[in-house]
Amino acid sequence: xxxxxxxxxxxxxxxASLLWASAFVEELDDSFIETxxxxxxxxxKFYTPWCTFCKQLDPIWHQIGSELRSVGSAxxxxxxxxxxxxALAKEFRVRSYPAILMLKNDVKYNxxxxxxxxxxxxxxxxxxxxxxxxxGSTQLFQHAMRRHDVMFVYVGASSELKVRTHTHTHSxxxxxxxxxxxxxxxxxxxxxxxxxxxxxxxxxxxxxxGVGLTSLPxxxxxxxxTSFSYNVEHDSDLKSWILRERFPTFLQIDSYTLxxxxxxxxxxxxxxxxxxxxxxxxxxxxxxxxxxxxNHKEAxxxxxxxxxxxxxxxxxxxxxxxxxxxxxxxxxxxxxxxxLPLGPVKTERHLLDFLNGVxxxxxxxLGGNGFMQRVKRFVYETKITLTPLFRxxxxxxxxxxxxxxxxxxxxxxxxxxxxxxxxxxxxxxxxQEPSPPRRNKPTHKKQE
Length: 448
Fold this sequence. Notes:
It contains 15 helices and 18 strands. By secondary structure, it is an alpha/beta fold. It folds into three domains: about 20-115, Glutaredoxin (3-Layer(aba) Sandwich); about 135-245, Glutaredoxin; about 255-370, 3-Layer(aba) Sandwich (Glutaredoxin).
């Protein structure tokens, strides 16, 4: 009796907690477009009833709503069924599910990170705040350093650091004295890239003593226990430089991070290892990649990211095959290409030779996004989609596969039936087939 009472009490508490969490997530419909105030901050999830990933995200989403309410955040949490609120989904150009976006000053910010509570909360905090956060003291700066693996800091007076550069010479003042002319500013880049990383500003005396700056204003990136500045002469535009430098030199990479790395144009060297308990070979590959990333940063950091990934399922989908774990692979996200070592990689020298071969073209690039590769990918993805379906529900799989074939056969039959007879004249009459020529019978004249 006591056991049954405890079960009932536990069920009641569970339902009460779910209802309490649900109270902090608002269901939105098409009227949201007219009723929303421009100054409101919203983070919204679009879902569909048939989406498995949407159902997996649902409890996390309600936890996010509860936590933001408990800390007094101004961000309101909403969700919308895209199959019902079609106008709202169309307004925000939702194409895949679950889609997560944030609205701030009527500007939409798409979230492309991992569907985890910490990842979404970090995105919410980053976008809802100012694009550039001021660090007014050494204590604040050190606190930010402890929280963030990568920090971009604008250092200088109130003047703006500009984005694009060109030079010209004033011959009547100082010969060969080049003046740098800038367009845009640090704040505008921060407003655009706030979805990816945090941006800060500080005065020179707030920075650690070991940070050397040749001129002000400057943009400095702090990562991997060191710092270096944006160089207007060698680093092209500021936005591209930030996109290249926003990841640590060596890190654990998931599918979302790997996809984001593609925006930089860099190649990615990956050590594929087991998920939990690393074998000796996996540990050797991982340490080897980290060693090269650290010891040869100057030589390869402009061309490569370095990291490790647990498992090979995502890479298997990219290469449309299977890689054994552990393995080494270089991925080119700009064209879905990849490179594999030509032989065993036992030493640091072997790995450096592999990277040099990738850069000089002596290692063949596999995959890509050419026409035949796209056809191959379509066949591969169709197979991957249908195989589990045939395994779990073969009757349904046969029905789905036969349906387009039946439709295609019907269309072909109709086309053949309605095809005009080529033997008909243009006026629609059918000409008579000419009769074979008649042989004239020989005439036998009667001899006189």
